[in-house]
Amino acid sequence: MSNLNGNHIIIGVGGTGGNVLKAIRKRYFQEISSADARRTTPLGFIYVDSSEENMKPNDPTWKVLGENSQLGKDSFLYIRGASLGSQLENVDSYPGIKSWIGDRTIWDNLVGSVGNDGAAAQRRRLGRFLFSCAVNEYESILKNQVKEVKSKSGRTDVTFHIIAGLAGGTGSGSIVDIISQTRKHFQPNVGSGLNYKILVYCLVPEHSPLPGWDKGFYHANGFAALQELNALQVKRFIPHDVSGEYEFIPLERVDRVFNSCFLFTNANENGITVDVKNDLPDIVSDLIFHYLFLQVDDTTRAFEDAFTLENIVDGEKEKDENAKTVEIANKEKPVRTRRFNSFGIKRIVSPEEEIVEYFTYNFARQALLQFKYNNWSDDLGYRDQPKNEDYITFVNDRATLNSWLLSDAHLMLSLPVLPSEK
């Protein structure tokens, strides 16, 4: 396994982000089995969710190769809904909420619908509210993770990987604020050597969600989130600072709010679909994992360039022959960003450990079957059932008894038994 290519922070948001982050952690434990090596790898993790489904201690779904790959408490951010009512009653005391909360009466039904686990229940506005209540905790966790990975590598550059689904309330509702808060604290400055990239990975709502998944907002959430992401990148939408530090996120000096946004779904161009909950996280985690650990040389630079779009886009200018004329004539901000991207990847591995285990198991099983049944088949080896033969007829056959010297004539010694008697 190659060394990690720079400092990286992986941020999972909502259920989809948590599932992909879990898949990355399990792959990480598989590829880097040494605990000492993992402690020195400049790779940080943050998981933000309004549901405790993937945050319960000793969750067996995080286990791989006998180890628990679950994150530590310093990487979990559970955005609860217990104090929503009191915060709305005293909204003037929360400047990060007051600026965008709107009509207080609209929130009565939303706050009442928050379950015991505080989940956003596919309501984007509620997901944003929940995150805004815990934004200070997010900033603290983020800064600690960045400080830790920098101390491990001695480098100043950091790449943030933000993963979310756009159908749910938490991911769709808080993705813009998480990107904005991350960029607010970590703005690139080429002259000082500070290079902070933000790569976003968003699951677009599938055409036919699983039964019970669509609560009436599934596809609308995805459309609204994509609109906001596009407007955020072209700076037609400057979000309120939900932390209350500023009225709006200061993005004036930022060339790119995020470097690239990868959109993926559970179906490819050939119409082949995969399971959103079980298979898709592994596919996305493979892409991210390969990018993290691929060495940048002449053979892999093309992959990295395609990944970061540096060879495709340079700013948001038009690429036609009249680009300069259009730019001068139209001083308005662009309407659409070109930094949405998609990907496809196939993972080819040689499962050496699984091959050894498979042969060991099969040799042991064949030996036991030989002892128990001794039923050999040229096609299957030793079978797990007795031979289908009529042993009584075979034993009573006269030729068999004569060959075994057990016929009545042999037993009565009418026929010789010993060679000396013949």
Architecture overview:
The protein has 422 residues and is an alpha/beta fold. It contains 16 helices and eleven strands. The strands form three sheets. The protein has a seven-stranded parallel β-sheet with strand order 5-2-1-6-7-8-9. A two-stranded antiparallel sheet has the order 3-4. Strands 10-11 form a two-stranded antiparallel sheet. Strand 10 (376-377) and strand 11 form a beta hairpin. The protein is elongated, with a radius of gyration of 32 Å. Mean pLDDT is 81; it is low at 298-330.
Q: Helices, strands, pairings?
A:
Blueprint: E1 7-13, H1 14-31, H2 35-40, E2 43-49, E3 63-64, E4 67-68, E5 76-78, H3 84-89, H4 95-98, H5 107-112, H6 124-133, H7 135-153, E6 158-165, H8 169-185, E7 196-203, H9 218-233, E8 260-264, H10 280-293, H11 301-308, H12 323-329, E9 340-341, H13 352-372, E10 376-377, E11 381-382, H14 391-396, H15 398-404, H16 408-411
Parallel strand pairs: 1-2, 1-6, 2-5, 6-7, 7-8, 8-9
Antiparallel strand pairs: 3-4, 10-11
Helix pairs in contact: 1-8, 1-10, 6-8, 8-9
